[in-house]
Amino acid sequence: MPASEGLLERYALAMLDLLAREAPVEHFEELVREAAREGAGEDALASVTAAKNRSLEVRQLFARRQQREAGLSALVDTARDLTQPYNLDSLLTVITRRTRLLMGLDMSWVSMLAEDGSSRVQAADGYASAITVGFLVSSGGGVGWQARQRVAPFWTPDYMRDDTFTHDEAIDHVVRSEGLRAVMAIPLRYENATMGVLYGADRNVRHFLPDEISLMTSLADLAAVAIERTRLLERTRTEVASLAGEVTRAEESSTAAHRLHRVHRSLLHQALGGGDLDALMERAAAELGGALLLRDPVDKHLAHTPDLPALFSGPGSTRVDHPAVDRVCLDARATDGLVRGDDGAGGVLLAGPVTGGTENLGTLVLCGARAPSEEQERLLDLAAQAVAVHLLLQRGTAVAEGQVRDELLHDLLHVSQLPRGQLAARGRRLAVDLGEPHVVVVARPEGGSQSRANAWAAAYAQRLSGLKYVDGGHIVLLLPGDDPAGAARSVQRELSAVLGHPVTAGAAGPTAAPDEVRHVYREAQRCLETLTALDGTGGTASPDELGFLGLLLSEKQDVARFVGSAIGPVLEYDRQQSTELVRTLEAYFASGSSPTRAAELLHVHPNTVSRRLERITELLGPHWQEPARALEVQLALRLHRTRHLLAEGDGAAAPGQALWASTGSGTP
Prior knowledge:
16 strands; 5 domains; Beta-Lactamase; 6-stranded antiparallel β-sheet; flat; 5-stranded antiparallel β-sheet; alpha+beta
């Protein structure tokens, strides 16, 4: 080996060793200087320098991935922190502090829009003197105004030297006073409305990287959800306090009024404390003296007290469906008030709507043997308010965590070469075990509200410990289990009921490898596209259900699995009994499905062929000769024959040899 090649190999190995040890940059530079001191030629020194540059690029790539993982982990912690029951001022203080620390900035602040259109700073962190709470933000310029107009992040590496946007003198004065250089503004949006702007700034020139902009955008989305939830809670507390005051003033001397006030306050305290829904229902039922049932806006069961099923189906039953309950729930939604009904067994039902503002969240039903009193009616209405607060709190928490869950499934579907251990760790933080079998379902609503479909998908995925992602008009679900067909049917059935429109779904899997989810997702997409091409809108399909089409659509053609699903029982019977059912099947199809001609090809009596066909029918079922099934059986026979010949090393059948050539001996 020439000396220069030996030198290059030695220094290349040294570079790899430094990468493995995560050595600082100066150690790489020292290797180049050492090569120069050893008298390396110009070409060799250039090669060592190139190896050093490429090693530093790899080192930087690793550093960026670690930084992104740390950012996502911090974002999950932030999401959980923002779900705590703060008042609005405390929440905004937490948001600004989290923003500054998460992004490594010198300063952060939040401005909120008022009803008159003005924008004022509500909280700030890291400020010196200029930006304080109550500062009026001009609407004529600055990065915040740009972010609101574009409904997108806007940033500048050096604010005062950047003339690509409109400046405002008042804002420029603040920027100069604080000594700020790099500034980023992210609009705070909730349900297509802007409520304010989240700012981050540095006192040095700084070019924000795409990962940093994405991280701060995710933080702003979480902050917007938390702000809206806190506003709703404060309005609820105000309304509760107002209602409690009215009850106290109007019926101060009434024992019943005092009890209503006490129970209402207790139920709301339990709901605001983040307790379990079942525990809240049991507490309300104990005060009402009856059993309770909760349904969602489309009459899907949400919760019930333990003693409810026995009222309709007897002890030990878990069913709570009943026509009388269906009727009273429909009447309560139609009238938007309390409705009485007959349970069909001499008892009385009392149903009341569960609402949050103008939104219908479901129906609460009281089941009892006696007619409810006026006090019970009022108490059921108050219990419905407490249940509404609990459901809204659950939704706010689900939306905050949903941002992080959606990003994990996005990476599984679209980002290649992510370390499997890193993906598994992210899944564990979200209570998703990616090491267990999962299936992918791709659902396409054929009408209805897309936002409603997305909300249902988020709740459905979280309930099953899965993940959800919205790709255009398609909803992608990663669900635990090993039955893609069953998962697709469940998704199609429930989502169709929620939307009131058909839903088409394709599914594939299972897989227990995070880096295989992308391939399973593409198979599920192809199943959905095949359904559309075959005019199967509103149906479901998986590779197994599509038969040989599924074999063609699969990225990993599992021929053995297809053959086993089509003619597996016949193959097993031949193996165990030393019969010739496979040979008979081949001859039967080769003769145009004529038992007589098949008997001639096999040199047996026609009655023998008939008996064998009867046995095949017992094994494959009565419909194996129908056109679609017969096509799969014939394809499976050919694939089995080809695999058999290849296994023997023959390569192919001899010219003129029939495909149904002898495979054994004996009779059925």
